[in-house]
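Entry 14. Two folds queued back to back today. First construct below, sequence then structure tokens.
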Amino acid sequence: MRLSEIDFGAALPVEGYGPDFFRIKGEAHPAPLLIVPGEVRDWGGYDDPAPLLALAGQVDVLLIGTGGAIAHIPTDLRNILEAAGLGVEIMDSPAACRTYNVLLSEARRVALAVLPVG
């Protein structure tokens, strides 16, 4: 699925996704992953909060894609992210990708942590 034809300059929008990958800059990256300003990183999922906590003060919002369907993230994870001052928005991974791209197009400070869709 192709998501966008907008020129994002140096930003890293999600160009598409499949059951177990997300395409960024023409390259498929296995999920789960974390996209931060200027960089795509591996992410260990809900049991790996450290890379998310490191974003405190660097982004205005952290979008978390919960896979193919919207689901609650673990309460402990949400609590530690919010205690660190991170604005967290939870949605299914396809919606998180679309929202991330929109916020990027508005030059917002945003990061995306996504679980596989399929």
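Second construct, same run, same settings:
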Amino acid sequence: MKISEVVRLTGATVVCGEEKTGHEVEKGFSSDLMSDVLTLDTENLLLITGLSNVQAIRTAEMADIQYILFTRNKKVTDEMVELAKENNMVLLETSFSLFKTSGILYHAGLKPVY
């Protein structure tokens, strides 16, 4: 699924990495627990989370995750954008809940990690 499709389906806003909206993600993982994210070993992954802080960006960096969708109308800070740009990440924001966002993307064909 292309990032542009994720944006369309979830009504998301691209905060950082607009030039990468043509990139594909194969799987999605929804979590607010960054310790769970660190256990993943999957490429082309979309992290769906409501945890909007620098720790989410740092965790994604350590897990080699380039695409993050923040839910529940959480706003990305300037510090988060700066760190994401340094790591060539895409940051998206949606007003949908974590549950609704995950359901929409799963229904549209985004595969789960497990």
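Quick look at the second one. The chain is about 35% helix and 20% strand. The first strand starts at residue 13 and ends at 16.
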